[in-house]
Design brief:
Helix content of chain A: 25-40%
Shape of chain A: globular
Largest sheet of chain A: 5 strands, antiparallel
Number of strands of chain A: 17
Radius of gyration of chain A: 21 Å
Oligomer: homotetramer
Number of helices of chain A: 7
Low-confidence stretches of chain A: none
Strand order of the largest sheet of chain A: 1-2-3-7-4
């Protein structure tokens, strides 16, 4: 229980179901005196929100964030910052049919067995809608890290609907998505998050190593099934003579470590890749059970999201920022 | 700071450097009345300890564990259990040369910058020696889960030096290791940990999802660069119609989810795979800097470990058990 | 930083300044399936709110609570419950004068030095207004404990404006309060909170003993300067032969321990007393400094609250309930 | 469960029963580069240990502390520091009689019901022997605070067996103790701990206010039944015009607040007083039950400790230091 808090000094606690009145969070531990407004946070949410490209789900939420506390005369006070996002486009009737089904690949089965009583509409708290709160909180961290440390995440990826850094791939991706939509199917995605200008020394070995906490942060995002740092799984077949990053007076000669050694940042780019599974909510029927143990068929009606991975990008950026912010503050305690 | 505690109800706090007097830990929150002795724990440590096969490092430690508290008349009292393992084979003179070097691929560079003053001998706390404490603590969890829930990890793998489930591969692996030793090089490894008979309902969404905490637990192990659950990174290119695990009256028809949906255990086998990088301590020289910023060459003398991944198996089992134990207790609080 | 979270399994995180848009909290870890509505919580807030008797402050807040998540079809889902209370009667103009003063006995001085930038209106987060969130969260705990365990707090005290169990004292108290109001002064208060029907076994020695956590819970309430359990400070001069609670077949023969031995509940009534200081916001002028270091005089205008202690009663009940709820869940993990 | 960890950044986890092999702790989060040796810590333990004056218990323990990790070449490395104290004078035979009794005023009853299986010898973990680990950990904090911030606790009290600041009272106290010993009885004690030179700004409102955490820290010490800050319970009958500490250019004009306002240190002396109950282990017989529910008589044989409060002084100092150290590090994260 109480698994809805993340972080030690810069701490996020979130709430909200897909079809409840609202989502939101409390961000505790933001240093005081930092300039912050809802308008600063909104663009981060806009990058995440549904219905903004023809490649993603068509639920249309405004995702307007309000700041309810922790800011006075435009600057943070060091007291907890509450962020609220109201749900406006729930369409609860779309889910009434599936209230007694266990949709394959979704958390219906596990929530039913763990909690007994669950909000089945849109997956309740298991829905990716919950990530809006993370993105709002992560926005504060990103702004702070940018302004104070120059830590940035890749920006040019926002210029296309796929967050793809290689513009030559866009049309191919678009064609793939369209084909999947017509087939009634979906595909997974791989997302890479890079943080630059990270100071050396962030991370708290041995259980709160930077890579360990990043792994948890990313794995906690809906649909993530794998996390790797630097060379990641390719290190399995690498030779030691290849993998280790040697050094010269110019600095490190490579970055297979992905910016982390011994669980602590090296000053090199932190490179994290995640694997997202394909959504199970597709128009192709699936076989499953209902809550009475009977075999039934389930199918998603209407438009579906052929690749949820696209939407994970701003969420992964948010989680990266939240982790770095927390470790940044923890490192200050030593100096 | 203070990143050496793991778990919420079943909580491990560990200490110890590679060349310090001892390693150990405190396990807090073990239910009372459980039969436990040092003899119960020792086999788990023996499975881990160095010098027991010709394929791994030749440091010879007895790794004898002592129980200093928390057990009375052979059963746990519910009070903290302290485990102590004395270091006996430090050979500190082997490291005097490298005290001012940053060995590539090791944590020397990051520990130097984060802490300033570090125990350079054998990597100090960044050494994999630290994992002996985890294995000792994990033994308690494994014994409890086995006896109370029948949760086991794969046993037959212990019958060969590689923990390899496929006996036909042994000679090939042996040849590879020998070749690498002669080359003065090393290779990474992939390890898969499976837990069976896990009850449904373990995990605390959204930040302490079972897979998220497992990811952190595994990533915190030395040399781990990637963690995946179930289909993992192969889910990136899977179709939704393939990936999702459908259900019939016989139960789930597949297990691409790896036993976890929505961050909660489904009752299916929990399957976690990890990627371990090749060790950087090889007899092939490497280029690096010393603490004065001068370019120097570093090389490991004598025998080296061509594949550290082999030794990660009992450590990964220990981490799996620690995580499951903690979530098992947390789930009891709801029922 | 991040000191706004309370509890381990039943966890409260709160936010809100006296003059911000709203106050509220997230309650994480409430067991699922529990019947809960805003109407269930409101009476607890009404017992606390200002302006309801002529003996307390005249700020008139509706303190209407809304549930934003964690409840579906009238019952909890086991997901975080967000509670929101909007501020409606701020009267910010009353505070513009004192923005640069350090009101004696208030937190202005410490908040100024710790945070630099502070919301001075009504004391910002240091205001007792913040306790509305605690009372709302505590209501959930009180309801759960009542219905599931029959744990109650003293009810008849609500029948008079002073929460006084001895009706013969009411007129004397009323006269005292009136006299203080005319004098422009205030007085402290002593409040005793009793919990009945508490099961044996709650508390987690040695640092999270039940009495230790209760002490922190109570001391965290505004104006509290002392906490005692059972005999408390009178135990200083008690003889051992008097203090110790002997036992017979009828049970304990006394309760100097206040229901707690070795940090664990004994099954007897838990008796906690707290000392509240007199408010410093009185119409008698005081000498202080402003933020420029100049000596100035400060005075509260208009009506003041001669005894803030009266309002602490429902807050102390809330904290008692929050602590017992958390330990109740933690104890379930052992059994 | 797992209530044996204290602190957030400067974190203590302890273990050990009265009659087990050893006691000890892990101190995690001590800043690196700090000069530390077992010889630095020993005097703090000597101030606490039994058998050193004729006024306290006659168990003779060497209480020799060993440092097992976290220190290299005389300075801390920033990694966890393990401290070990072996038990040498257990005399287990003294307790065999009472294994099935619930000694009044002791934790036997509650431990029996909470844990089922308990180490009854000397009270097991409920024994004050456990506080040796706290004193050892607190020594590190005290040394750090002294050297880095000049924060000291009252030293001259160590010059007499009662830690009494007023030498004219010594003979009276000695006579009282002797009389109680002859009577076969005991008395409580009041101890006041003062910390000087504490910087402004320590404390994390609202639940981790400095006074709240100090209250928990002190209440967690065996035999403590009350904690007060500054004016404490005398504030109940104080007028607001008296209690509030006014300010002039010379600073605060009084210190009824005890150095804490709004849960944050003001820079004034932090003054905490605690109430300790009289020990129940006296030579006067008491009536109680055994584990079979039968009425029995229990009595302590031989010499007893007429006033346990005397020994609480170094423990209370340790707890004060641990709390201040943790908040000192947390405050650095903001600046």
């Amino acid at each position: 229980m109480s698994g809805n808090t993340f972080g030690t000094l810069f701490r996020l606690t979130s709430f909200g179901e897909s079809h409840g009145p609202a989502l939101g969070c409390i961000v505790d531990g933001c240093p005081p005196g930092f300039m912050l407004s809802a308008e600063d946070i909104q663009p981060f949410l806009n990058k995440r929100k549904p219905g903004q490209s023809r490649y993603t789900t068509q639920r249309r939420e405004l995702d307007e964030v309000q700041i309810l506390s922790g800011v006075f005369e435009g600057r943070t006070t060091g007291t907890p910052i509450a962020l609220l996002i109201e749900n406006t486009d729930q369409r609860s009737r779309d889910y009434a049919e599936i209230k007694d089904l266990f949709r394959p690949g979704h958390a219906d089965f596990t929530y039913h067995h763990k909690y007994g009583h669950r909000d089945y509409r849109g997956g309740g708290r298991s829905s990716a809608r919950e990530t809006a709160a993370r993105v709002a909180a992560g926005a504060i961290a990103q702004l702070y890290l940018q302004r104070n440390l120059g830590i940035v995440s890749e920006q040019e990826i926002s210029k296309n609907d796929f967050f793809c850094p290689n513009s030559t791939q866009i049309s191919e991706l678009a064609a793939l998505i369209e084909a999947l939509r017509r087939q009634g199917d979906s595909v997974g995605a791989r997302v890479k998050i890079i943080a630059r200008n990270v100071p050396i020394g962030l991370g708290e070995p041995v259980y709160e190593k930077l890579d360990a906490v990043l792994a948890a942060a990313m794995m906690s995002i809906n649909a993530v099934k794998g996390v790797e740092i630097g060379a990641g799984f390719s290190a399995v077949s690498q030779l030691g003579s290849e993998h280790r990053d040697q050094m010269s007076k110019q600095g490190f000669l490579s970055n297979h470590a992905g910016g982390i050694l011994g669980g602590i940042s090296t000053g090199q780019d932190i490179e994290v890749s995640i694997a997202l599974k394909p959504t199970s909510s597709i128009t192709t029927p699936a076989q499953t059970l209902n809550t009475s143990g009977e075999e039934v068929t389930v199918v998603t009606k209407g438009r579906h999201d052929p690749c949820v991975g696209i939407r994970a990008v701003p969420i992964a950026e948010a989680m990266m920022a939240l982790v770095l912010m927390d470790f940044y503050l923890r490192q200050k305690a030593i100096k």
